[in-house]
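Convert to structure. Protein one:
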Amino acid sequence: MWPYVIISGVVYSGSILSVLDRRTSVLSWTVLASFAIALSAFIGFRFEVGKDWIQYNYIFKLITELPFVEAMDFTDVGYSFINWLAFQLGFGISAVFFFCAVVLVVGLMMFAALTPYPWLAMAIAMPHIVTIMAMDHIRQTTTLGFILIGLALLARDRVWAFMGCIVLGALFHRTGIMCLVFGLFLVQKNRLLLYPAVLGISAILMKFLLADQIGVYFLRYVETSAGSRGALIRLLLNALPAVGFLIYGKYANLPEKLDKVMRAMAWAAVISLMVLPLLPSAVIIDRIGKYFLPVQILFFPLLVSLLHGYALRFIATSLLCAYLFLTQFYWLYTSELADYWVPYKMTQF
């Protein structure tokens, strides 16, 4: 348990101290960058941590035994290629995990830089994105990392880079291609022509990436009435900051295109919660809802920045970090899946 306490304690402490200054200093950025490197190693070089750790090792083993073409078709092509490349270069599964960890952490850092308090943005990601998703849902976490990188590039008005990051992320988890729909909110000229074009391209890519998996997803998540532990809580915890962002997002002063996409994500997070009772299975909407997590990463630093006075910001951030710490370690202590996470072990080189 102590490795989780140490790595989390650093970011929570950094968050509390960072709000005492309106600007992130060079020293603070240097320490945060060092933390990002340590976090990448913490996630990437774990050993026998996460419920699906054995399954991903099995995938790696099978891919290394298949011809290249068959290996690329074994699972999502991006993840298959990273496994194949790691083996060709003489590395093991830890190299695959480390690559995926770096994509996520780089995405978190680039996106956190858009917020008033980057340390706090990183702290928001610790309980669920880092502790649970990154340690287990490797492919979808990598997809989320590429989406975060895309959003950071969109802040620089690089629309096609944003769209490209979504496509690249979808090569690791096919459901990520659905985020291409957010491209509709970036159309400004010739909308009568571009709306159908974006929808058409999205439909083609969805068909290409999802067609052979729709039956599998339907069988796994609907016909079997599969449930998702804590789906309602996760969707609620995503919808609440989404509502907050829809109300106070105008104070973030985001670039116009990024603001449109983030508002669309916020609405998607709210709608996800609303439609949950109407669905035969919570798993599908719960999985898709993970792509809307950037909203809460953006909202909470914004909320703290709107508070007047260092003392008020310090108290609010301290309470928020205490809440994040308690939820993170409550899960690690009480979840029926916690035995897959505790004790934490690192790969021996």
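Protein two, convert as well:
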Amino acid sequence: MRRLLAILIPGLLLLTACGGGEPAAPEPTSQSAGETAKLDSLKLTENGDKKAPKVEFTKPLDVTEPTVKVVTEGNGDRVKANQIAEVSVLALNGKDGATLDDSFPKDPQPIELNDDLKTQSPIIYNAFVGAKIGSHLALAAPGQAAAQGAEAQPSQLLIIKVLSAKDAPKVLDKPEGDSVTPPAGLPKVTEKDGVPELDVKGVAAPKELIAQDLIKGKGPEVKATDTLTVNYVGVALASGKKFDSSFDRKEKATFPLNNVIKGWTQGLTGKTVGSRVLLVIPKALAYGDAGQGEAKGDLVFVVDILGTK
């Protein structure tokens, strides 16, 4: 995760904690909120998509509540609900204008405008939904008083350029693709009421990672840096005991693929959305002998890859 997000995300959470802003407009247009008059002195000089704009404003900038405003309106289409906005962000110290971070020269950052964001941070959601592509938004977050040995923090000013927007990838309800017959000697996978069941009796301990398609999906190829949405069931090979199942919770799991055990990262990278994958994972690529709860030693999973982002 980029250092910039360590600046941006607290600002978003701060907005979340401070309530609502204006009610939603019948026809979505970007909505300002907070002490917008304090941003009237803000002037931007455009430098393209890969270089941050020149920013001028009256200093110090001191706001007592989260504040967001469209500074310059772009000429593109309006961003819609449930799209993913691609943005670049310049973060400035509100006291003296010093640059805290700058993502403009880097790859754009995605902000998913979904119901979760609408609930958690309506001010941010309402600012982005209805904004035109090419617009610059200003987001000012109040400073923080000194507490428990931490120094006081000045206000922050984020200049956010909306570069593009695209529809969020579809998340499947179940695997879709062509059935694949696995080779002999692997755990047996059956299905009951749409839920996979594993039988590991007589299966030898794996000498290396096995990642066998049971259904070959036709969607996008998974990258190690993707965030996946999956359903899965996991069994300890030695005992045959199920230790985890999203199916039992009746809730899909979403996580960054590079933030799980190595057997998942290595085994699912290169697979395709829509696939059902059988993973037989040596303990060295899982939680080892010590394990994590009942997930000890060699592990076996069936994973349905339902979406990526």
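The mean pLDDT is 90. The first strand starts at residue 43 and ends at 45.
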